[in-house]
Amino acid sequence: MFGKWTRRSTLLVAIGAAGLLLLIAAALFIVRRQADAAPVRAAFSDLLRDLDRGAVAGIVISGDELDFTRRDGTTARTTAPANYVTANPDFIPGLARKDVRIDVKAPRDQSAYDYGAVLIAVLFVGTLGFALYRMNSGRIPALENKTRAADREASTVTFDDVAGVDEAKEEVRELVDFLREPGRFAGIGGRIPKGVLLVGPPGTGKTLLARSIAGEARVPFLFASGSDFVEMYAGVGASRIRKLFKDARRHQACIVFIDELDAVGRSRGGTSLSHEEREQTLNQLLVEMDGFAPNQGIVVIAATNRPDILDPALLRPGRFDRQVTVGAPDLKGREQILRIHAKKVAVDDRVDLRQVARGTPGFSGAELANLVNEAALHAVRSGRQIVTGGDFDQARDKVLMGAERKSLTMSEHERVTCAYHESGHAVVAALLPHADPLHKVTIIPRGRALGVTMQLPEGDRHTHTREFLEAQIAILMGGRVAEEIFLRQMTSGAGNDIERSTEIARRMVCEFGMSPNLGPLAYRQADGERGAGISESTAQRVDEEVREIVMRGYETARQIVDKRRAAVRAMAEELLVVESLDAEGIREILGRSA
Ligand code: ADP
Ligand code: MG
Ligand code: ZN
Q1: Does 215 map to a domain?
Q2: Whether the predicted pLDDT of 311 surpasses 80
Q3: For the whole prediction, is pTM greater than 0.70?
Protein backbone atom coordinates (compact mmCIF):
# COMPACT_ATOMS: atom_id res chain seq x y z
CA MET A 1 0.00 0.00 0.00
CA PHE A 2 2.73 2.36 0.97
CA GLY A 3 4.62 1.68 -2.23
CA LYS A 4 1.56 2.40 -4.31
CA TRP A 5 0.94 5.62 -2.47
CA THR A 6 4.40 6.90 -3.13
CA ARG A 7 4.16 6.05 -6.79
CA ARG A 8 0.86 7.82 -7.05
CA SER A 9 1.95 10.92 -5.26
CA THR A 10 5.12 11.14 -7.34
CA LEU A 11 2.92 11.00 -10.39
CA LEU A 12 0.66 13.71 -9.08
CA VAL A 13 3.59 15.94 -8.22
CA ALA A 14 5.01 15.43 -11.72
CA ILE A 15 1.70 16.27 -13.34
CA GLY A 16 1.32 19.30 -11.12
CA ALA A 17 4.79 20.55 -12.00
CA ALA A 18 4.15 20.06 -15.72
CA GLY A 19 0.89 21.97 -15.43
CA LEU A 20 2.58 24.80 -13.58
CA LEU A 21 5.31 25.07 -16.21
CA LEU A 22 2.69 25.24 -18.91
CA LEU A 23 0.87 27.97 -17.06
CA ILE A 24 4.04 30.01 -16.71
CA ALA A 25 4.82 29.50 -20.39
CA ALA A 26 1.33 30.63 -21.32
CA ALA A 27 1.61 33.72 -19.12
CA LEU A 28 5.00 34.67 -20.59
CA PHE A 29 3.61 34.16 -24.05
CA ILE A 30 0.69 36.42 -23.43
CA VAL A 31 2.88 39.14 -21.89
CA ARG A 32 5.26 38.97 -24.83
CA ARG A 33 2.46 39.02 -27.29
CA GLN A 34 0.97 42.06 -25.67
CA ALA A 35 4.32 43.82 -25.71
CA ASP A 36 4.51 42.94 -29.38
CA ALA A 37 1.03 43.96 -30.15
CA ALA A 38 1.05 47.27 -28.44
CA PRO A 39 4.04 49.36 -29.52
CA VAL A 40 3.75 53.15 -29.76
CA ARG A 41 1.92 53.98 -32.94
CA ALA A 42 3.17 56.70 -35.15
CA ALA A 43 1.88 58.21 -38.35
CA PHE A 44 3.76 57.37 -41.53
CA SER A 45 4.46 61.03 -41.97
CA ASP A 46 6.16 61.06 -38.55
CA LEU A 47 8.58 58.46 -39.83
CA LEU A 48 9.27 60.42 -43.02
CA ARG A 49 9.83 63.59 -40.98
CA ASP A 50 12.15 61.85 -38.52
CA LEU A 51 14.06 60.36 -41.46
CA ASP A 52 14.47 63.80 -43.02
CA ARG A 53 15.77 65.17 -39.72
CA GLY A 54 18.21 62.29 -39.51
CA ALA A 55 16.70 61.29 -36.18
CA VAL A 56 16.18 57.63 -37.06
CA ALA A 57 18.84 55.15 -35.97
CA GLY A 58 17.36 51.87 -37.21
CA ILE A 59 14.36 50.44 -38.87
CA VAL A 60 12.86 46.98 -39.00
CA ILE A 61 10.79 46.32 -42.09
CA SER A 62 8.30 43.53 -42.08
CA GLY A 63 6.01 43.86 -45.03
CA ASP A 64 4.19 47.14 -44.71
CA GLU A 65 4.86 47.39 -41.01
CA LEU A 66 7.82 49.42 -40.00
CA ASP A 67 9.29 49.55 -36.50
CA PHE A 68 11.80 52.30 -36.08
CA THR A 69 14.14 53.38 -33.37
CA ARG A 70 15.08 57.00 -33.00
CA ARG A 71 18.54 58.15 -32.02
CA ASP A 72 17.13 59.23 -28.67
CA GLY A 73 16.19 55.59 -28.00
CA THR A 74 12.41 55.82 -28.41
CA THR A 75 10.69 53.40 -30.69
CA ALA A 76 7.50 53.51 -32.70
CA ARG A 77 5.60 51.50 -35.22
CA THR A 78 3.91 52.71 -38.30
CA THR A 79 2.24 51.26 -41.34
CA ALA A 80 3.39 52.24 -44.76
CA PRO A 81 0.95 52.62 -47.68
CA ALA A 82 0.45 49.27 -49.39
CA ASN A 83 3.63 48.07 -51.10
CA TYR A 84 5.29 51.42 -50.43
CA VAL A 85 8.63 49.84 -49.59
CA THR A 86 8.81 47.63 -52.68
CA ALA A 87 7.24 50.20 -54.99
CA ASN A 88 9.81 52.91 -54.06
CA PRO A 89 13.20 51.74 -55.26
CA ASP A 90 14.79 54.79 -53.62
CA PHE A 91 13.46 54.18 -50.16
CA ILE A 92 15.98 51.58 -48.98
CA PRO A 93 19.06 53.21 -50.56
CA GLY A 94 17.87 56.50 -49.07
CA LEU A 95 17.83 54.90 -45.62
CA ALA A 96 21.29 53.52 -46.12
CA ARG A 97 22.58 56.94 -47.11
CA LYS A 98 21.18 58.42 -43.92
CA ASP A 99 23.12 55.81 -41.93
CA VAL A 100 19.96 54.03 -40.75
CA ARG A 101 20.44 50.42 -39.71
CA ILE A 102 18.06 48.37 -41.83
CA ASP A 103 16.64 45.02 -40.82
CA VAL A 104 14.08 43.13 -42.82
CA LYS A 105 11.79 40.53 -41.29
CA ALA A 106 9.23 38.30 -42.93
CA PRO A 107 5.86 40.02 -42.76
CA ARG A 108 4.46 39.53 -39.27
CA ASP A 109 2.09 36.59 -39.32
CA GLN A 110 -0.53 36.88 -36.65
CA SER A 111 -1.48 33.25 -37.01
CA ALA A 112 1.98 32.11 -35.85
CA TYR A 113 1.08 33.43 -32.45
CA ASP A 114 -2.31 31.81 -32.61
CA TYR A 115 -0.79 28.42 -33.40
CA GLY A 116 1.36 28.83 -30.33
CA ALA A 117 -1.69 29.64 -28.26
CA VAL A 118 -3.58 26.65 -29.62
CA LEU A 119 -0.61 24.37 -28.95
CA ILE A 120 -0.36 25.53 -25.37
CA ALA A 121 -4.09 25.13 -24.88
CA VAL A 122 -4.00 21.58 -26.24
CA LEU A 123 -1.05 20.63 -24.04
CA PHE A 124 -2.73 22.15 -21.04
CA VAL A 125 -6.04 20.41 -21.54
CA GLY A 126 -4.20 17.17 -22.32
CA THR A 127 -2.20 17.30 -19.12
CA LEU A 128 -5.25 18.11 -17.08
CA GLY A 129 -7.22 15.30 -18.68
CA PHE A 130 -4.41 12.82 -18.10
CA ALA A 131 -4.18 13.84 -14.45
CA LEU A 132 -7.90 13.37 -13.96
CA TYR A 133 -7.81 10.05 -15.76
CA ARG A 134 -5.03 8.76 -13.53
CA MET A 135 -6.66 10.01 -10.38
CA ASN A 136 -10.14 8.82 -11.02
CA SER A 137 -10.97 6.15 -13.44
CA GLY A 138 -7.51 5.22 -14.65
CA ARG A 139 -7.76 2.03 -12.67
CA ILE A 140 -10.77 0.72 -14.48
CA PRO A 141 -8.94 0.12 -17.72
CA ALA A 142 -6.07 -1.22 -15.62
CA LEU A 143 -8.37 -3.93 -14.29
CA GLU A 144 -9.42 -4.88 -17.77
CA ASN A 145 -5.81 -5.28 -18.73
CA LYS A 146 -5.18 -7.39 -15.70
CA THR A 147 -8.07 -9.74 -16.23
CA ARG A 148 -7.12 -10.18 -19.82
CA ALA A 149 -3.50 -10.83 -19.03
CA ALA A 150 -4.53 -13.38 -16.47
CA ASP A 151 -6.86 -15.09 -18.93
CA ARG A 152 -4.06 -15.85 -21.23
CA GLU A 153 -1.80 -17.01 -18.47
CA ALA A 154 -4.31 -19.35 -16.95
CA SER A 155 -3.70 -22.41 -19.04
CA THR A 156 0.03 -22.46 -18.37
CA VAL A 157 0.05 -23.20 -14.65
CA THR A 158 -0.97 -26.64 -13.43
CA PHE A 159 -0.91 -28.58 -10.18
CA ASP A 160 2.59 -29.75 -11.08
CA ASP A 161 3.84 -26.22 -10.55
CA VAL A 162 2.60 -26.16 -6.97
CA ALA A 163 4.36 -28.23 -4.33
CA GLY A 164 4.45 -28.66 -0.60
CA VAL A 165 0.76 -28.03 -0.12
CA ASP A 166 -0.62 -31.48 -0.87
CA GLU A 167 -3.55 -31.24 1.49
CA ALA A 168 -4.72 -27.97 -0.01
CA LYS A 169 -4.35 -29.42 -3.50
CA GLU A 170 -6.42 -32.39 -2.48
CA GLU A 171 -9.14 -30.15 -1.14
CA VAL A 172 -9.48 -28.08 -4.29
CA ARG A 173 -9.28 -30.99 -6.70
CA GLU A 174 -13.04 -31.40 -6.94
CA LEU A 175 -13.34 -27.79 -8.06
CA VAL A 176 -11.46 -28.77 -11.18
CA ASP A 177 -13.96 -31.49 -12.02
CA PHE A 178 -16.79 -29.11 -11.42
CA LEU A 179 -15.32 -26.35 -13.56
CA ARG A 180 -14.75 -28.76 -16.42
CA GLU A 181 -18.38 -29.82 -16.53
CA PRO A 182 -20.50 -27.56 -14.36
CA GLY A 183 -23.75 -28.75 -15.95
CA ARG A 184 -23.13 -32.42 -15.37
CA PHE A 185 -22.07 -31.77 -11.81
CA ALA A 186 -25.23 -29.88 -11.03
CA GLY A 187 -27.23 -32.69 -12.65
CA ILE A 188 -26.05 -35.28 -10.16
CA GLY A 189 -26.74 -32.91 -7.33
CA GLY A 190 -23.16 -32.31 -6.33
CA ARG A 191 -22.83 -29.45 -3.92
CA ILE A 192 -20.09 -27.14 -5.02
CA PRO A 193 -18.95 -24.22 -2.96
CA LYS A 194 -19.39 -20.83 -4.59
CA GLY A 195 -16.55 -19.36 -2.67
CA VAL A 196 -13.31 -20.86 -1.40
CA LEU A 197 -11.04 -19.00 0.95
CA LEU A 198 -7.34 -19.80 0.73
CA VAL A 199 -5.79 -19.01 4.07
CA GLY A 200 -2.09 -18.84 4.71
CA PRO A 201 0.94 -16.66 5.26
CA PRO A 202 2.37 -14.62 2.38
CA GLY A 203 4.29 -16.41 -0.33
CA THR A 204 3.00 -19.90 0.33
CA GLY A 205 1.43 -20.20 -3.10
CA LYS A 206 -2.20 -19.14 -2.68
CA THR A 207 -2.26 -17.16 -5.91
CA LEU A 208 -0.34 -19.90 -7.63
CA LEU A 209 -2.77 -22.55 -6.42
CA ALA A 210 -5.78 -20.55 -7.63
CA ARG A 211 -4.13 -20.11 -11.02
CA SER A 212 -3.37 -23.79 -11.22
CA ILE A 213 -7.01 -24.69 -10.63
CA ALA A 214 -7.91 -22.55 -13.62
CA GLY A 215 -5.08 -24.13 -15.56
CA GLU A 216 -6.12 -27.66 -14.71
CA ALA A 217 -9.75 -26.97 -15.56
CA ARG A 218 -8.78 -24.91 -18.62
CA VAL A 219 -11.11 -22.08 -17.68
CA PRO A 220 -10.46 -18.33 -17.66
CA PHE A 221 -8.89 -16.81 -14.58
CA LEU A 222 -10.21 -13.38 -13.64
CA PHE A 223 -7.92 -11.66 -11.22
CA ALA A 224 -8.49 -8.75 -8.88
CA SER A 225 -6.79 -7.63 -5.72
CA GLY A 226 -8.59 -6.31 -2.69
CA SER A 227 -6.06 -3.55 -2.23
CA ASP A 228 -6.88 -2.19 -5.68
CA PHE A 229 -10.46 -1.62 -4.68
CA VAL A 230 -10.00 0.41 -1.57
CA GLU A 231 -7.63 3.09 -2.71
CA MET A 232 -10.16 4.43 -5.14
CA TYR A 233 -12.80 7.04 -4.87
CA ALA A 234 -16.22 6.25 -3.55
CA GLY A 235 -18.27 3.96 -5.71
CA VAL A 236 -15.44 2.97 -8.00
CA GLY A 237 -14.57 -0.15 -6.03
CA ALA A 238 -18.16 -1.33 -6.11
CA SER A 239 -18.44 -0.68 -9.82
CA ARG A 240 -15.27 -2.62 -10.43
CA ILE A 241 -16.69 -5.58 -8.54
CA ARG A 242 -19.86 -5.35 -10.65
CA LYS A 243 -17.76 -5.29 -13.79
CA LEU A 244 -15.66 -8.21 -12.66
CA PHE A 245 -18.71 -10.39 -12.14
CA LYS A 246 -20.35 -9.18 -15.32
CA ASP A 247 -17.26 -10.34 -17.09
CA ALA A 248 -17.39 -13.65 -15.21
CA ARG A 249 -20.98 -14.35 -16.24
CA ARG A 250 -19.99 -14.14 -19.86
CA HIS A 251 -17.94 -17.31 -19.54
CA GLN A 252 -19.20 -20.88 -19.52
CA ALA A 253 -17.16 -21.49 -16.42
CA CYS A 254 -14.42 -19.47 -14.82
CA ILE A 255 -12.56 -18.59 -11.68
CA VAL A 256 -12.82 -15.17 -10.12
CA PHE A 257 -9.81 -14.70 -7.90
CA ILE A 258 -9.71 -11.95 -5.29
CA ASP A 259 -6.33 -11.56 -3.72
CA GLU A 260 -5.90 -9.87 -0.33
CA LEU A 261 -9.57 -10.21 0.49
CA ASP A 262 -8.97 -8.71 3.91
CA ALA A 263 -8.33 -5.33 2.27
CA VAL A 264 -12.02 -5.11 1.35
CA GLY A 265 -13.41 -7.71 3.68
CA ARG A 266 -12.45 -6.31 7.06
CA SER A 267 -15.20 -6.29 9.58
CA ARG A 268 -17.47 -3.39 8.96
CA GLY A 269 -17.90 -0.45 11.25
CA GLY A 270 -14.27 0.57 11.32
CA THR A 271 -13.36 4.19 11.67
CA SER A 272 -10.70 4.54 9.04
CA LEU A 273 -11.10 7.11 6.33
CA SER A 274 -11.59 4.67 3.52
CA HIS A 275 -14.05 2.58 5.39
CA GLU A 276 -17.15 3.87 3.67
CA GLU A 277 -15.73 3.02 0.30
CA ARG A 278 -14.68 -0.37 1.55
CA GLU A 279 -18.12 -1.05 2.92
CA GLN A 280 -19.71 -0.24 -0.43
CA THR A 281 -17.27 -2.52 -2.17
CA LEU A 282 -17.83 -5.30 0.32
CA ASN A 283 -21.60 -5.02 0.00
CA GLN A 284 -21.34 -5.20 -3.75
CA LEU A 285 -19.22 -8.32 -3.46
CA LEU A 286 -21.82 -9.93 -1.22
CA VAL A 287 -24.59 -8.99 -3.62
CA GLU A 288 -22.71 -10.45 -6.56
CA MET A 289 -21.91 -13.67 -4.74
CA ASP A 290 -25.52 -14.16 -3.79
CA GLY A 291 -26.54 -13.28 -7.32
CA PHE A 292 -25.34 -16.26 -9.30
CA ALA A 293 -26.63 -19.79 -9.12
CA PRO A 294 -24.33 -22.54 -7.91
CA ASN A 295 -24.52 -24.31 -11.26
CA GLN A 296 -23.42 -21.29 -13.23
CA GLY A 297 -19.83 -22.45 -13.31
CA ILE A 298 -18.39 -19.51 -11.46
CA VAL A 299 -16.12 -20.25 -8.55
CA VAL A 300 -14.88 -17.35 -6.50
CA ILE A 301 -11.55 -17.96 -4.83
CA ALA A 302 -10.12 -15.46 -2.40
CA ALA A 303 -6.84 -15.36 -0.55
CA THR A 304 -6.00 -13.89 2.81
CA ASN A 305 -3.54 -14.26 5.62
CA ARG A 306 -5.89 -12.64 8.11
CA PRO A 307 -9.09 -14.71 8.19
CA ASP A 308 -9.65 -13.50 11.74
CA ILE A 309 -10.41 -9.94 10.69
CA LEU A 310 -12.83 -10.80 7.90
CA ASP A 311 -16.40 -9.63 8.09
CA PRO A 312 -18.47 -12.61 9.26
CA ALA A 313 -20.95 -11.95 6.45
CA LEU A 314 -18.30 -13.11 4.00
CA LEU A 315 -18.05 -16.51 5.64
CA ARG A 316 -21.75 -17.36 5.63
CA PRO A 317 -23.13 -20.28 3.63
CA GLY A 318 -23.25 -19.51 -0.08
CA ARG A 319 -20.28 -17.20 0.19
CA PHE A 320 -16.77 -18.12 1.30
CA ASP A 321 -18.02 -21.08 3.26
CA ARG A 322 -15.03 -23.28 2.61
CA GLN A 323 -11.59 -22.58 3.96
CA VAL A 324 -8.46 -24.23 2.67
CA THR A 325 -5.25 -23.79 4.62
CA VAL A 326 -2.13 -23.17 2.56
CA GLY A 327 0.69 -23.54 5.04
CA ALA A 328 4.44 -23.12 4.96
CA PRO A 329 6.13 -26.16 3.42
CA ASP A 330 7.91 -28.84 5.42
CA LEU A 331 11.26 -30.34 4.46
CA LYS A 332 9.88 -32.57 1.73
CA GLY A 333 7.70 -29.76 0.40
CA ARG A 334 10.64 -27.39 0.30
CA GLU A 335 12.69 -29.90 -1.61
CA GLN A 336 9.90 -30.31 -4.18
CA ILE A 337 9.47 -26.57 -4.53
CA LEU A 338 13.21 -26.15 -5.01
CA ARG A 339 13.10 -28.82 -7.72
CA ILE A 340 10.34 -27.02 -9.57
CA HIS A 341 12.23 -23.76 -9.63
CA ALA A 342 15.67 -25.31 -10.15
CA LYS A 343 14.37 -26.83 -13.38
CA LYS A 344 14.28 -23.35 -14.86
CA VAL A 345 18.01 -22.78 -14.36
CA ALA A 346 21.09 -24.91 -14.96
CA VAL A 347 22.04 -26.41 -11.62
CA ASP A 348 25.20 -28.41 -11.04
CA ASP A 349 24.41 -32.14 -10.62
CA ARG A 350 26.35 -32.19 -7.38
CA VAL A 351 23.98 -29.76 -5.68
CA ASP A 352 21.88 -31.68 -3.18
CA LEU A 353 18.55 -29.88 -3.11
CA ARG A 354 17.46 -31.88 -0.09
CA GLN A 355 20.43 -30.43 1.72
CA VAL A 356 19.41 -26.96 0.59
CA ALA A 357 15.89 -27.64 1.85
CA ARG A 358 17.35 -28.67 5.22
CA GLY A 359 19.13 -25.37 5.51
CA THR A 360 16.02 -23.33 4.85
CA PRO A 361 13.51 -24.13 7.59
CA GLY A 362 10.63 -21.68 7.65
CA PHE A 363 11.16 -20.52 4.08
CA SER A 364 7.96 -19.99 2.10
CA GLY A 365 7.52 -21.08 -1.50
CA ALA A 366 8.12 -17.55 -2.69
CA GLU A 367 11.32 -17.33 -0.69
CA LEU A 368 12.51 -20.61 -2.13
CA ALA A 369 11.76 -19.39 -5.65
CA ASN A 370 13.67 -16.25 -4.78
CA LEU A 371 16.53 -18.36 -3.41
CA VAL A 372 16.94 -20.23 -6.70
CA ASN A 373 16.79 -16.95 -8.56
CA GLU A 374 19.42 -15.34 -6.36
CA ALA A 375 21.66 -18.39 -6.69
CA ALA A 376 21.42 -18.18 -10.48
CA LEU A 377 22.21 -14.46 -10.36
CA HIS A 378 25.21 -15.14 -8.17
CA ALA A 379 26.48 -17.70 -10.65
CA VAL A 380 26.10 -15.23 -13.49
CA ARG A 381 27.91 -12.53 -11.58
CA SER A 382 30.74 -14.97 -10.99
CA GLY A 383 30.90 -15.62 -14.72
CA ARG A 384 29.57 -19.16 -14.55
CA GLN A 385 26.89 -20.90 -16.58
CA ILE A 386 26.12 -23.47 -13.90
CA VAL A 387 24.68 -22.86 -10.45
CA THR A 388 26.76 -24.47 -7.70
CA GLY A 389 26.20 -25.28 -4.04
CA GLY A 390 28.26 -22.22 -3.16
CA ASP A 391 25.81 -20.03 -5.05
CA PHE A 392 22.97 -21.49 -3.00
CA ASP A 393 24.82 -20.76 0.25
CA GLN A 394 25.35 -17.15 -0.78
CA ALA A 395 21.77 -16.79 -1.92
CA ARG A 396 20.46 -18.25 1.31
CA ASP A 397 22.31 -15.69 3.38
CA LYS A 398 21.01 -12.95 1.16
CA VAL A 399 17.39 -14.07 1.39
CA LEU A 400 17.74 -14.54 5.15
CA MET A 401 19.07 -11.02 5.55
CA GLY A 402 16.29 -9.42 3.59
CA ALA A 403 12.66 -9.30 4.66
CA GLU A 404 11.39 -9.62 8.18
CA ARG A 405 11.62 -13.32 8.08
CA LYS A 406 13.89 -13.72 11.07
CA SER A 407 10.87 -14.07 13.29
CA LEU A 408 9.87 -17.17 11.37
CA THR A 409 13.08 -19.11 11.75
CA MET A 410 13.72 -20.71 15.07
CA SER A 411 17.08 -21.10 16.70
CA GLU A 412 18.36 -24.66 16.85
CA HIS A 413 17.58 -24.86 20.55
CA GLU A 414 14.05 -23.66 19.95
CA ARG A 415 13.61 -26.29 17.27
CA VAL A 416 14.77 -29.02 19.64
CA THR A 417 12.49 -27.74 22.38
CA CYS A 418 9.60 -27.58 19.98
CA ALA A 419 10.26 -31.09 18.67
CA TYR A 420 10.22 -32.64 22.15
CA HIS A 421 7.26 -30.55 23.22
CA GLU A 422 5.11 -31.61 20.28
CA SER A 423 6.27 -35.22 20.57
CA GLY A 424 5.12 -35.15 24.18
CA HIS A 425 1.64 -34.04 23.12
CA ALA A 426 1.54 -36.60 20.34
CA VAL A 427 2.67 -39.62 22.32
CA VAL A 428 0.22 -38.90 25.12
CA ALA A 429 -2.57 -38.41 22.57
CA ALA A 430 -1.66 -41.65 20.81
CA LEU A 431 -1.77 -43.70 23.99
CA LEU A 432 -4.91 -42.42 25.68
CA PRO A 433 -7.92 -44.50 24.65
CA HIS A 434 -10.43 -41.67 24.96
CA ALA A 435 -8.54 -39.15 22.85
CA ASP A 436 -9.26 -38.29 19.23
CA PRO A 437 -6.88 -39.95 16.78
CA LEU A 438 -3.79 -38.00 15.73
CA HIS A 439 -3.77 -36.35 12.37
CA LYS A 440 -0.47 -34.58 12.14
CA VAL A 441 2.45 -33.25 14.13
CA THR A 442 4.63 -30.45 12.84
CA ILE A 443 7.37 -28.17 14.04
CA ILE A 444 6.74 -25.65 11.27
CA PRO A 445 5.90 -22.28 12.75
CA ARG A 446 2.38 -21.20 11.95
CA GLY A 447 0.97 -17.95 13.15
CA ARG A 448 2.23 -17.50 16.67
CA ALA A 449 2.57 -21.21 17.37
CA LEU A 450 5.97 -22.76 16.85
CA GLY A 451 4.56 -26.23 16.35
CA VAL A 452 1.24 -27.99 16.15
CA THR A 453 -0.17 -31.34 17.16
CA MET A 454 -3.43 -31.90 15.34
CA GLN A 455 -6.09 -34.38 16.24
CA LEU A 456 -8.97 -35.38 14.01
CA PRO A 457 -12.31 -35.53 15.75
CA GLU A 458 -14.26 -38.62 14.76
CA GLY A 459 -17.46 -37.25 13.37
CA ASP A 460 -19.14 -34.17 14.76
CA ARG A 461 -19.15 -34.09 18.46
CA HIS A 462 -21.38 -31.88 20.48
CA THR A 463 -20.97 -33.43 23.86
CA HIS A 464 -17.86 -34.67 25.56
CA THR A 465 -17.42 -37.36 28.13
CA ARG A 466 -15.50 -36.73 31.29
CA GLU A 467 -12.84 -39.20 30.11
CA PHE A 468 -12.43 -37.27 26.87
CA LEU A 469 -11.95 -33.97 28.69
CA GLU A 470 -9.48 -35.54 31.11
CA ALA A 471 -7.56 -36.97 28.17
CA GLN A 472 -7.53 -33.51 26.57
CA ILE A 473 -5.94 -32.05 29.68
CA ALA A 474 -3.34 -34.82 29.82
CA ILE A 475 -2.46 -34.25 26.16
CA LEU A 476 -2.07 -30.53 26.78
CA MET A 477 0.25 -31.30 29.70
CA GLY A 478 2.30 -33.70 27.54
CA GLY A 479 4.27 -30.84 25.99
CA ARG A 480 5.45 -29.34 29.25
CA VAL A 481 6.19 -32.80 30.68
CA ALA A 482 8.37 -33.81 27.74
CA GLU A 483 10.37 -30.60 28.02
CA GLU A 484 10.94 -31.28 31.72
CA ILE A 485 11.94 -34.90 31.30
CA PHE A 486 14.19 -34.61 28.27
CA LEU A 487 15.55 -31.09 28.42
CA ARG A 488 15.21 -30.40 32.16
CA GLN A 489 13.63 -27.06 31.41
CA MET A 490 10.36 -25.22 31.53
CA THR A 491 9.56 -22.70 28.84
CA SER A 492 6.86 -20.16 28.17
CA GLY A 493 5.96 -22.22 25.13
CA ALA A 494 3.57 -24.23 27.28
CA GLY A 495 1.67 -21.12 28.36
CA ASN A 496 -1.20 -21.60 25.97
CA ASP A 497 -1.49 -25.30 26.82
CA ILE A 498 -1.71 -24.45 30.49
CA GLU A 499 -4.34 -21.82 29.92
CA ARG A 500 -6.45 -24.17 27.86
CA SER A 501 -6.23 -27.08 30.28
CA THR A 502 -7.10 -24.85 33.20
CA GLU A 503 -10.12 -23.59 31.31
CA ILE A 504 -11.29 -27.13 30.53
CA ALA A 505 -10.91 -28.15 34.17
CA ARG A 506 -12.76 -25.07 35.36
CA ARG A 507 -15.69 -25.76 33.10
CA MET A 508 -15.74 -29.41 34.17
CA VAL A 509 -16.18 -28.24 37.75
CA CYS A 510 -18.30 -25.13 37.35
CA GLU A 511 -20.48 -25.93 34.34
CA PHE A 512 -20.56 -29.64 33.69
CA GLY A 513 -20.89 -30.82 37.26
CA MET A 514 -18.11 -33.36 36.81
CA SER A 515 -16.49 -32.94 40.17
CA PRO A 516 -17.70 -35.65 42.60
CA ASN A 517 -16.89 -33.42 45.56
CA LEU A 518 -18.81 -30.38 44.38
CA GLY A 519 -21.64 -32.14 42.61
CA PRO A 520 -23.83 -31.18 39.69
CA LEU A 521 -24.18 -27.49 40.41
CA ALA A 522 -23.50 -24.45 38.26
CA TYR A 523 -20.86 -22.40 40.00
CA ARG A 524 -20.82 -19.03 38.37
CA GLN A 525 -17.41 -17.56 38.09
CA ALA A 526 -17.71 -14.82 35.53
CA ASP A 527 -14.35 -13.72 34.17
CA GLY A 528 -12.52 -15.40 36.99
CA GLU A 529 -14.35 -13.28 39.51
CA ARG A 530 -16.59 -14.88 42.01
CA GLY A 531 -20.12 -14.32 40.82
CA ALA A 532 -23.33 -14.37 42.71
CA GLY A 533 -24.32 -17.63 44.28
CA ILE A 534 -20.90 -18.76 45.33
CA SER A 535 -19.56 -18.33 48.79
CA GLU A 536 -15.96 -17.68 49.71
CA SER A 537 -15.43 -21.19 51.00
CA THR A 538 -17.06 -22.77 47.94
CA ALA A 539 -14.85 -20.67 45.69
CA GLN A 540 -11.86 -22.05 47.48
CA ARG A 541 -13.07 -25.60 46.97
CA VAL A 542 -13.66 -24.88 43.27
CA ASP A 543 -10.09 -23.66 42.93
CA GLU A 544 -8.79 -26.76 44.70
CA GLU A 545 -10.88 -29.04 42.57
CA VAL A 546 -9.72 -27.39 39.32
CA ARG A 547 -6.15 -27.70 40.45
CA GLU A 548 -6.74 -31.34 41.35
CA ILE A 549 -8.07 -32.16 37.87
CA VAL A 550 -5.21 -30.41 36.07
CA MET A 551 -2.64 -32.10 38.28
CA ARG A 552 -4.18 -35.48 37.59
CA GLY A 553 -3.79 -34.78 33.87
CA TYR A 554 -0.23 -33.71 34.44
CA GLU A 555 0.50 -36.94 36.32
CA THR A 556 -1.08 -39.06 33.58
CA ALA A 557 1.06 -37.31 30.99
CA ARG A 558 4.19 -37.71 33.07
CA GLN A 559 3.65 -41.43 33.45
CA ILE A 560 3.06 -41.95 29.74
CA VAL A 561 6.01 -39.87 28.59
CA ASP A 562 8.25 -41.52 31.15
CA LYS A 563 7.18 -45.00 30.12
CA ARG A 564 7.52 -44.22 26.41
CA ARG A 565 10.72 -42.23 26.50
CA ALA A 566 12.07 -44.10 23.50
CA ALA A 567 9.04 -43.23 21.42
CA VAL A 568 9.12 -39.54 22.37
CA ARG A 569 12.83 -39.31 21.61
CA ALA A 570 12.48 -41.12 18.29
CA MET A 571 9.61 -38.89 17.26
CA ALA A 572 11.42 -35.70 18.24
CA GLU A 573 14.50 -36.73 16.33
CA GLU A 574 12.45 -37.60 13.29
CA LEU A 575 10.61 -34.30 13.49
CA LEU A 576 13.87 -32.39 13.61
CA VAL A 577 14.66 -33.89 10.23
CA VAL A 578 11.37 -34.02 8.38
CA GLU A 579 9.49 -31.34 10.33
CA SER A 580 6.11 -32.96 9.99
CA LEU A 581 4.64 -36.40 10.50
CA ASP A 582 1.26 -37.64 9.40
CA ALA A 583 -0.84 -40.25 11.17
CA GLU A 584 0.95 -43.10 9.50
CA GLY A 585 4.40 -41.74 10.28
CA ILE A 586 3.40 -41.38 13.92
CA ARG A 587 2.06 -44.94 14.07
CA GLU A 588 5.23 -46.24 12.50
CA ILE A 589 7.46 -44.58 15.10
CA LEU A 590 5.30 -45.75 17.97
CA GLY A 591 5.40 -49.30 16.62
CA ARG A 592 9.15 -49.20 16.12
CA SER A 593 9.94 -47.95 19.60
CA ALA A 594 7.39 -49.95 21.54
P1 ADP B 1 0.81 -16.10 -2.04
O2 ADP B 1 -0.29 -15.79 -3.00
O3 ADP B 1 0.46 -17.17 -1.07
O4 ADP B 1 1.37 -14.91 -1.38
P5 ADP B 1 2.18 -16.66 -4.45
O6 ADP B 1 1.33 -17.67 -5.11
O7 ADP B 1 1.99 -15.26 -4.90
O8 ADP B 1 2.00 -16.72 -2.89
O9 ADP B 1 3.70 -17.09 -4.59
C10 ADP B 1 4.65 -16.31 -5.26
C11 ADP B 1 5.60 -17.17 -6.05
O12 ADP B 1 6.36 -18.02 -5.18
C13 ADP B 1 4.90 -18.12 -6.99
O14 ADP B 1 4.62 -17.52 -8.21
C15 ADP B 1 5.89 -19.25 -7.12
O16 ADP B 1 6.91 -18.95 -8.03
C17 ADP B 1 6.50 -19.31 -5.75
N18 ADP B 1 5.78 -20.26 -4.89
C19 ADP B 1 5.07 -19.96 -3.78
N20 ADP B 1 4.53 -21.06 -3.24
C21 ADP B 1 4.87 -22.08 -4.02
C22 ADP B 1 4.59 -23.49 -3.98
N23 ADP B 1 3.84 -24.03 -3.00
N24 ADP B 1 5.10 -24.26 -4.97
C25 ADP B 1 5.85 -23.71 -5.95
N26 ADP B 1 6.15 -22.41 -6.04
C27 ADP B 1 5.68 -21.59 -5.09
MG1 MG C 1 -0.45 -13.80 -3.60
ZN1 ZN D 1 1.94 -27.31 23.36
Answers
A1: yes
A2: yes
A3: no
